[in-house]
């Protein structure tokens, strides 16, 4: 019996060693970490009622290679667009607008530039300035292209469609 439990323990340990999960931060944690070790910030803007948000969390962000890449190159944040928690950023306090269940949070409105679509992923540069927000559900292979577009800073001098046309997948097949 002990031997069987030991084998189960070793299998569980080895499985956890090879799985990779996104190491989510709060918005404030990501901004704070960015002070000492600058990276871009990736913000998954979601709601708890959004089925596509759940699917993207499950299929895209939980893909081991995507998770590993995100953890290496970004400070990842999962932000509930309808959260009632206050967030202070650059001396301004952002909070939920209104008192209805589906009222948006002011930070979500700012990140998505008023285009409230879920899921959306907002990308901030190393100076915590919004690069852009990308709405919609993306499979892991499509998310790979987006991530590389921002990490390689191709967005500075190239249209995404041009970048995507010449892209060769290296993380997801």
Short structural description:
The protein is an alpha+beta fold and 173 residues long.
Q: Would you kindly provide a written description of the structure presented here, covering whatever features stand out?
A:
It is a single chain. The chain has helices at 2-18, 27-36, 51-61, 64-73, 106-111, 140-151, 160-165; strands at residues 40-46, 74-80, 87-89, 92-94, 120-124, 130-135. It has seven helices and six strands. The strands form two sheets. A four-stranded mixed β-sheet has the order 2-1-5-6. Strands 3-4 form a two-stranded antiparallel sheet. With 173 residues, the protein is α+β, with helices and mostly antiparallel strands. It is 42% helix and 18% strand.
Q: Rough shape?
A: globular
Within the largest sheet, what's the order of strands?
2-1-5-6
Number of strands: 6
Mean pLDDT metric = 91
Uncertain runs with pLDDT below 50, 5 residues or more? 8-17
Number of helical stretches of at least 4 residues: 7
Largest sheet: 4 strands, mixed
- Element string (H = helix, E = strand): HHEHHEEEHEEHH
Distance between the termini: 41 Å
The value of Rg in angstroms is 18 Å
Can you give the helix content as a percent range? 40-55%
* Beta-strand share of residues: 15-25%
Q: In terms of structural class, how would the helical and strand content be classed?
A: alpha+beta
């Amino acid at each position: 019996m002990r031997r069987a439990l030991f084998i189960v323990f070793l299998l569980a340990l080895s499985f956890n060693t090879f799985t990779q999960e996104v190491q989510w931060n709060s918005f404030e944690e990501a901004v704070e970490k960015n002070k000492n070790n600058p990276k871009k910030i990736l913000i998954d803007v979601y709601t708890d009622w959004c089925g596509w948000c759940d699917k993207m969390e499950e299929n895209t962000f939980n893909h081991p290679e995507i998770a590993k890449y995100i953890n290496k190159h970004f400070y990842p944040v999962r932000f509930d667009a309808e959260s009632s928690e206050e967030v202070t950023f650059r001396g301004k306090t952002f909070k939920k607008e209104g008192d209805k269940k589906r009222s948006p949070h002011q930070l979500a409105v700012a990140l998505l530039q008023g285009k409230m679509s879920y899921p959306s992923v907002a990308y901030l540069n190393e100076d915590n300035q919004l690069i852009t927000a990308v709405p919609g559900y993306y499979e892991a292979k499509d998310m790979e292209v987006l991530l590389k577009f921002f990490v390689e800073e191709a967005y500075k001098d190239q249209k995404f469609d041009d970048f995507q046309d010449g892209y060769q997948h290296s993380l997801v097949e």
